[in-house]
Design goal:
With 294 residues, the protein is an alpha/beta fold. It is built from 13 helices and 8 strands. 42% of the residues lie in helices and 13% in strands. The radius of gyration is 18 Å and the shape is globular.
């Protein structure tokens, strides 16, 4: 399966709130040119929470179409209701995605038993590989390594995106889940260390704006060249911080727009465009990372 540098792709939108498919196609081409290893379509960074199910599936399918087999696409299939997650999964069954990424059910705060039942039911509804996604800072539920281990025995649950930033979990997950279970970081600031400790890849927000450098950092870390990985990573540390000055994906969408990659930075309510007080911060850290700002 997929290793390395994976972008949690934004979903570009027109000023009237509709999906901007022309800009989406440009973004897919940009990541192919920059060497990104795979795309996650309509995850958290892709504003999955504000896209109705039919639109969600349409964006995933169109992303696969634009990719045209040149870069793997993973479709987001998370929901806070198991029945909805299954319906979304089935809607993407024939889309061409190589895997699906399912965030833990948010707001409900399910128990470990509930998480196991949820993911087992979703996995049973498809033969497409499933990747678990743990991001307690967004969902209010933390899927512990022991719960992941129980789910790892399900045949088409192949990995986990771990976004706590807790590097001690890498060794624990590897111990409990085995060498073949894929471990992805979901925290850009600790991604380099995550890979050096034995992770397989990074599903990244920053990758939207620094894909070439991020790919190089991931390649170096996967090759266990710690010094080179650190050298590449150091200029990006400001970006990792500034992209979370407001709730993701507000800052990264603004940054992608300032790079000229999308027609505008429209974002759906209840999220709003980046506050003016943070514009200077983003521009400064983008320049530090050698990103051309328009």
């Amino acid at each position: 399966m997929i290793n390395g540098s994976i972008v949690a792709l934004i979903t570009p939108m027109n000023s009237d709130g509709t999906v901007d498919y022309a800009s989406l196609e440009r973004l897919v081409e940009f990541h192919i040119e920059q060497g990104t290893d795979a795309i996650v379509a309509v995850g958290t960074t892709g504003e999955s929470a504000t896209l109705p199910m039919t639109e969600h599936a349409a964006v995933v399918c169109q992303t696969v179409k634009f990719a045209s087999g040149r870069i793997p696409v993973i479709g987001g299939n998370g929901a806070n209701a198991t029945a909805e997650a299954i319906e979304l999964t089935k809607s993407m069954q024939k889309s061409g995605v190589v895997a699906m990424l399912g965030v833990t059910p948010y707001y409900n705060k399910p128990t470990p038993k509930g998480l196991i039942a949820h993911y087992t039911a979703v996995a049973a509804s498809t033969d497409i590989p499933q990747i678990l996604y743990n991001v307690p800072g967004r969902t209010a539920v933390d899927m512990k390594p022991e719960t992941v281990a129980e789910l790892s025995i399900v045949s088409n649950i192949i990995g986990v995106k771990e976004a706590t930033g807790d590097l001690s979990r890498v060794a624990r997950l590897r111990e409990l889940c085995g060498e073949d279970f894929l471990l992805y970081s979901g925290d850009d600031a600790t991604a380099r260390e995550f890979l050096l400790l034995g992770g397989n890849g990074v599903i990244s927000v920053a990758n939207n704006i620094v894909p070439h450098a991020f790919k190089a950092m991931c390649d170096a870390a996967l090759a266990k060249n710690a010094q080179l990985a650190e050298t590449i990573d150091q200029p990006l540390t400001g970006i990792y911080r500034s992209l979370f000055c407001e709730a993701n994906p507000i800052p990264v969408k603004w940054a992608v727009h300032r790079m000229g990659l999308i027609a505008n930075g429209h974002i759906r309510l209840p999220l709003t465009e980046l506050s003016e007080q943070f514009h200077g911060l983003l521009i400064e850290t983008m320049k530090q990372a050698h990103i051309e700002v328009k």
